[in-house]
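Appendix C. Worked example: VOC domain-containing protein
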Amino acid sequence: MKLLHLGIPTENKIEKKTYSYVEKIKLYVTNPDEHEFKLQFVWAEPDSPLPEIVKKEKHLAIQVDSIEEAIKQFDYVAYPPVSINKKLKICFAVKDRVLFELAEVLN
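Step 2, the predicted output written as structure tokens:
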């Protein structure tokens, strides 16, 4: 397991930040590697399929070897696994009232 970033939801896009668009989940994200503290600002479109907890709560993103195995350690899945591109699959899950983004690098 590797800590990737802290995700911070915003009400709208922040000026002077560059966003990428994740079409499958209708989410705009900044690159945490461009922030000195690995913060990723996220803004969901109103019709995003993500649940409110993901749209409104901060999350810790961690890289896991297998999402299917990792989610067994969590209290519940807030948003099921989805491949967002050819290289990355993510899901959101909660453990001890903390929201996590689980990220699996695809081969």
